[in-house]
Design goal:
The protein has one helix and nine strands; from the N terminus they run H-E-E-E-E-E-E-E-E-E. The protein is mostly beta strands. A hairpin with a 5-residue loop joins strand 6 (82-92) and strand 7 (98-104). The longest helix has 9 residues, at 20-28.
């Protein structure tokens, strides 16, 4: 059903026409899902097996959101010598604006201070929800 507007009370107000992008923006105020193979941000290799990536939500959230990941969520860092896979183990200092992602690997592929690009591995997702 489309073109229907429910009202509280006995007086009807003019029909509210909202653009798709405005409605999507309003929904992301409460919830957004980031799906696999999506670019998350530029990252800094903090140690030889750990990176930190500042990550901002697409839309500021209503309140401090809960962040959950799909089973086996893996991220990939493209560094100078190629791609390296690890786990998005920590979402640090979560705010209404974003968080910091800590990615750890079981080996030591990075040089301390090296820059890279962090992306979510295909088939995985991260949910950001402020729907209390």
């Amino acid at each position: 059903i489309t073109g229907v507007q429910l009202e509280v009370g006995e007086v009807a107000t003019p029909f509210e026409h909202r653009l798709y992008q405005d409605e999507l923006f309003a929904c992301k105020y409460f919830f957004e899902r980031v799906s696999g193979a999506e670019f998350l941000g530029a990252t800094l290799c903090y140690q030889t097996n750990r990176t930190f990536t500042p990550w901002h939500w697409q839309v500021e959230k209503r309140g401090t959101p809960a962040v959950s990941v799909s089973d086996g969520t893996e991220v990939q860092v493209q560094a100078e010598d190629g791609y390296h896979t690890g786990s998005a183990t920590t979402f640090d200092t979560i705010t209404v604006h974003g968080t910091r992602i800590q990615m750890d690997t079981s080996n030591t592929p990075f040089t301390d201070g090296e820059a890279g690009i962090l992306k979510l591995k295909s088939g995985n997702y991260i949910d950001i929800s402020s729907e209390y």
